[in-house]
Design a protein that fits this description.
Blueprint: H1 2-23, H2 41-50, E1 55-64, E2 67-76, E3 79-85, E4 91-97, H3 105-112, E5 115-125, E6 128-137, E7 142-148
Antiparallel strand pairs: 1-2, 2-3, 3-4, 4-5, 5-6, 6-7
Length: 156
């Protein structure tokens, strides 16, 4: 009987410690509130319209070729979705993270020949659709490639 108690005590203690460690895990951080009042009215309106069903992660003001633009970082259904907005509120670009399976066959086939797809984004810019992929090449190195809807490389 003493032998049985000696075996049960360590198991009971380990079980108790495991249960306690699971309950003391840090809670998930709530999304931080982004103050949109600092942005022009048309930009605010576009952000509010485009983030109704998204989590707004951040907004940053940038200069691109002498033009002011606002990068809006969001998450929709666990996937990144970023927008580039001009001061008049016009959307210049949308980058959406997508699953490889949802890309056109030509895109999937083209990317698979280059390596393992780690992340894939569908990019709509000025009416043109392309796909930006982060890959692990056959040599083991990480690389990026952009292809059009036909799977052909896009020059930067």
């Amino acid at each position: 009987m003493t032998m049985l108690i000696a075996c049960v005590k360590p198991i009971w203690f380990v079980s108790l410690m495991l249960a306690a460690s699971m309950q003391t895990s840090a809670p998930a951080k709530p999304a931080r509130k982004v103050d949109l009042s600092q942005y022009p009215g048309p930009v605010r309106e576009t952000i509010q319209r485009e983030t109704q069903h998204a989590t707004l992660k951040g907004v940053s003001k940038e200069q691109e070729k002498g033009q002011t633009q606002y990068e809006v970082e969001t998450v929709v259904d666990g996937k990144s979705r970023d927008l580039l907005v001009d001061p008049a509120g016009k959307i210049l670009e949308i980058e959406e993270e997508i699953a490889l399976e949802t890309a056109p066959t030509a895109v999937r086939d083209s990317l698979k020949t280059r390596g393992t797809v780690l992340k894939l984004e569908r990019v709509q810019r000025q009416g043109t659709l392309s796909y930006e992929a982060q890959l692990k090449g056959k040599n083991g190195k990480k690389t990026s490639v952009t292809v059009d809807a036909d799977g052909k490389p896009v020059k930067g």
